[in-house]
Design a protein that fits this description.
Layout (H helix, E strand, L loop, with lengths): L13 H20 L3 E2 L5 E3 L1 H6 L2 H4 L4 E3 L5 E4 L4 H10 L8 E5 L2 E3 L11 E10 L4 H17 L7 E7 H10 L7 H10 L5 H8 L10 H8 L3 H9 L3 H6 L1 H12 L6 E3 L13 E7 L8 E5 L3 H6 L5 E7 H10 L12 E5 L5 H13 L4 E3 L6 H10 L4 E5 L1 H6 L1 E6 L5 E5 L3 H10 L1
Parallel strand pairs: 1-5, 8-9, 13-14, 13-15
Antiparallel strand pairs: 2-4, 3-4, 5-7, 6-7, 7-12, 8-10, 10-11, 11-12, 15-16, 16-17
This protein binds histidyl-adenosine monophosphate.
Length: about 425
């Protein structure tokens, strides 16, 4: 008998689930503020949905198997292919632009480490049927506003923003041939993590990007901010044109007052193969964690998977890294009370009153508990404390004889006698007061 969950899979004890619920409800609140509607799809999909367009990295991490009907299937590692299929199937009926969000659980066979597990939940927000750069700004603003709703500021998190079209134009103008472009993207994606020896090694193979050099690529990867990018763009008119959507999206974010959250950074390439334009990742400012969120524009995926030409963009935000960040910043809500009111009784004869009052209070929407077997009042009040109840009501033979009960405020320690007949209303008023 195995006594542990599989490596990389989580047991959610109630305090863990409370944090997960806090994350999900904040995600829903902000996504709906942007007019996004919630959808879902199947957790198991045909294998070729992913082998078609997601790229090697994610295909190598698939949980795939043959089902009993001998079909090749996979647990979903990401939501975007499912979304593309669903939208393409009803593209004619859906009002554009489509604004949809989902909170799927996803499965990837990855090496387990901090912030990386074999299952995670991911907020997916996607906008389909809109090619303007205002749509890119809208999606990035939504990701930033989720961070703000958790209490995070530009001191805590930053969006690193790039555009594959700009990077392609710059690399081309530096001399990278078309057939080496994807190798150049991979190099730029990894350049920050390369050791000096690995860089040396790469430089010793001058033919890979010729006539461009490894130094060219390193220089491009170091471009930060608009001044540096403009200097690079001045070298060719084609690049200036390629940078128009990126500039427009940035300016829109600035007009929303969100510029402090955003940094231009051409090393953001994104691992998934289907991105075609603006790409971004959201990181903790201290860069101690992996990305909280990543996304971008994927204008060809609906055509490739569903035969419908519709531009699209969106992001995925994982719960694992986000929870680490909230814990690091002390932003996990501390109210773990599971009940509002504990009802204690002294003798078995008082129990009927407790049962009746518990029912009235629960009907009024309060969270109520009482002891399920007779025990000393002291012990009952200890349970009330452990549950972090705000109020305890105690009823015994003396109170019953007076037609009253005692209501104790467990935070301030004060108590008062309350008529039994109006106790439910009084307790509710105290809870809301
Ligand atoms: P992704 O970059 O693969 O994008 O994942 C997005 C986020 O999900 C990551 O930044 C990370 O926080 C979280 N994540 C990914 N893998 C794991 C893991 N093994 N353990 C914990 N968290 C993880 C996508 O999946 C795209 N489909 C997002 C997208 C939607 N692009 C456009 N629309």
């Amino acid at each position: 008998m195995k006594t542990k969950a599989l490596a990389g899979f989580r047991d959610f004890y109630p305090t863990d689930l409370a944090l997960r619920s806090h994350i999900f409800s904040t995600w829903r609140t902000v996504a709906t503020r942007y007019g996004f509607e919630e959808y879902d799809g199947p957790p198991v999909e045909p294998l070729d949905l992913y082998t078609a367009k997601s790229g090697e990295e994610i295909v190598g991490q698939l949980y795939n198997f043959k089902d009993k009907g001998d079909r090749d299937v996979a647990l979903r590692p990401e939501m975007t292919p499912t979304l593309a299929r669903m939208v393409a199937a009803r593209a004619g009926e859906l009002k554009k632009p489509i604004r949809w969000f989902s909170i799927p659980q996803l499965f990837r066979y990855e090496r387990q480490q901090r912030g990386r597990l074999r299952e995670h939940f991911q907020l997916n927000c996607d906008l389909i049927g809109e090619s303007s750069s205002l749509a890119d700004a809208e999606i990035i603003a939504l990701a930033i506003d989720v961070m703000r709703a958790f209490g995070l500021s530009p001191r805590d998190v930053r969006v690193r923003l790039s555009d594959r079209r700009v990077l392609t134009a710059i690399l081309r103008q530096r001399g990278v041939p078309a057939q080496s472009m994807s190798t150049a993207f991979e190099f730029i994606d990894k350049v920050e993590r390369l050791t000096p020896e690995q860089l040396q090694e790469a430089s010793s193979r001058p033919d890979v990007f010729a006539p461009a050099t490894v130094l060219d690529l390193v220089e491009v990867s170091q471009i930060r901010g608009w001044d540096a990018l403009d200097r690079e763009l001045e070298r060719a008119a084609e690049s200036v044109k390629a940078a128009v959507p990126l500039r427009e999206a940035y300016e829109a974010l600035a007009a929303m007052g969100l510029a402090d959250f955003v940094e231009l950074d051409l090393t953001i390439v994104r691992g998934l193969a289907y991105y075609t334009g603006i790409v971004f990742e959201l990181f903790d400012a201290g860069r101690t964690l992996r990305a909280v969120c990543g996304g971008g524009r994927y204008d060809n995926l609906l055509q490739d998977l569903g035969g419908v030409a519709l531009p699209a963009l969106g992001f995925g935000m994982g719960d694992v890294v986000l929870a680490e960040l909230l814990k690091d910043k002390g932003l996990v809500p501390s109210d773990n009370a599971s009940i509002d009111v504990f009802l204690a009784f002294i003798t078995q004869d008082d129990l009927t009153h407790v049962l009746a009052l518990a029912h009235q209070l629960r009907d009024k929407g309060l969270r109520v508990e009482y002891a399920l077997s007779p025990q000393a009042v002291g012990k009952q009040l200890k349970l009330a404390d452990a549950r972090q109840a705000r109020l305890a009501a105690v009823i015994g033979p003396d109170e019953r004889a007076r037609g009253e009960l005692i209501v104790k405020d467990l935070r301030s320690g004060t108590q008062q006698a309350v008529p039994y007949s109006t106790a439910a209303d009084t307790i509710r008023a105290r809870m809301h007061g």
